Amino acid sequence: LELRDLLVRGVNPIINPHGLESSLDEFLSIYGGGYLENITSIVKDITGRTYYLSKMAPADEEHPSFFTDLLEAAESIGFSVSAYVNVFADLFYAADSRFNTQRGNGKGLEVFVCPNKPEFHNHMITVVKEIAKFSVPRIFLSNLGYARKDCCVCEDCRAEFSNYLGIRYEFDGPDSMDADQYQKWVFWRLMKINDVVQRLIQAAKAVNSDLAVIPVLPIDSELGFLSEYKEGFGIDIQTFAKTAKHLALEINPFTTILPAPDSNEFTKFIENLSFMTELRSEGVEFSMIHGVLETEEEYAHAKALAEAVDIRQFYTQIAYPPRFRTLREERLGLR
Ligand SMILES: [Zn+2]
């Protein structure tokens, strides 16, 4: 599908400069005249690099001012630009062994940083504040939580969790724990993630209280839908929803194929979204995101899913961001 096809159907594109087939100027000359209403740009990519000149984060070498150029054009042409920020997927920081997240086998991941590094929290808070100062109505926060169930067992996490248990405790990972320790491990991880995500949301809202700060939650059949949320990612959806009041569900980001309407898989998918009902009654809003909509069939499947759960705001990436494949393999435990 062409971007134009998606725009006329009211799909909101998520762009990154590496995924554009042309320069920003050419892109705007094609789509700027009437097609663009709401566009979302990745502002801090999986690479850890930003598309604006940050005081804190390294800027992308090829496109250091893509986002600020886009904002300038948006103001003169008249469309709105939202920001998409990768939090714990950050190749730049993860390349440093003091920051990358480590699995039970002692192997560090390439894309993900440990969610428990105060220095990285400060880094992200500064970046989020910088972005909140731009004229954007919403900021999506993606790649929150632990990368996987067996993360993180870096030196800092081991020391801190031992301290939390109040004993000198040596462990290799969750597999080596007894039931009581494991319960505490799950609780401790939830607490850590809730704390940092709340601080990121509050930091953005402190700059601009009208800003919608929207956590992005992958809902993927390959990841077992919601089953991994608490024990795997350390994410409590209820707490996220109460803090943010708006969640973006990223449907099958790693499986890519979406279930066809009327199939058993489709019904199963909808069942796994039943948690939305209660949250909606508490005033929580939902948007939906799907990777790249390449074919008419994929678009039809995505649209059917969104309609089945009454989601109106639908976003799609126009191209996979750099190094997405590595991120996917790490999430699914393929590497
Ligand atoms: Zn760690």
Quick take:
With 335 residues, the protein is α/β, with parallel strands linked by helices. The chain is 40% helix and 17% strand. Helix 5 runs parallel beside helix 7 (179-207) and helix 7 runs parallel beside helix 9.
Mind explaining what this structure looks like?
This protein has helices spanning about 5-10, 25-30, 65-75, 90-95, 120-135, 155-165, 180-205, 230-235, 235-245, 265-270, 275-280, 295-310, 325-330; strands at about 10-15, 40-45, 80-85, 100, 110-115, 140, 210-220, 245-250, 285-290, 315. Helix 5 (about 120-135) runs parallel beside helix 7 (about 180-205). It contains 13 helices and 10 strands. It has an 8-stranded parallel beta barrel with strand order 1-2-3-6-7-8-9-10, surrounded by 6 helices. A two-stranded antiparallel ribbon has the order 4-5. Strand 2, helix 3 and strand 3 form a beta-alpha-beta unit. The longest helix has 29 residues, at about 180-205. The radius of gyration is 20 Å and the shape is globular. The protein is about 40% helix and about 15% strand. It is an alpha/beta fold and about 325 residues long. Bound molecules: zinc ion. Zinc ion binds near residues 116, 156 and 157.
